[in-house]
Amino acid sequence: MLIARVDLPGSTRADVSLQVHQTRLLITAGPEGTAQLLKHLEGDGHVVYRRDRGTGGFFRSVLLPGGIDVDEIQATMTDGVLLVTAPGKDGDA
Hints:
This protein has a single domain (2-86), classed as Sandwich (Immunoglobulin-like), CATH 2.60.40. 0% of the residues lie in helices and 53% in strands. It contains no helices and eight strands. The chain has strands at 2-7, 16-21, 24-29, 35-41, 47-53, 58-63, 74-78, 81-86. The strands form three sheets. A three-stranded antiparallel beta sheet has the order 1-8-7, with no helix packed on it. Strands 2-3-6 form a three-stranded antiparallel beta sheet, with no helix packed on it. It has a two-stranded antiparallel sheet with strand order 4-5. It starts with a strand and ends in a 7-residue tail after the last strand.
């Protein structure tokens, strides 16, 4: 059985991606961050707009134990905490 708990403060369910590659579970999260529209007046009287966006990202690779049923991996996200579970192929709970 696999149980993985990952704290991802500020992330939402839409920010998180799970993939299985060979014997690894790949977890990525990349919140869009906050966008800020800045407006300022240049010395010649022209108005210039600029958009700044802060971003952050997360990546973790978890080695899957032998006997995990990758087709039964389940994940839930509650208050920035990702919980990933998977039973063993032989039905281990």
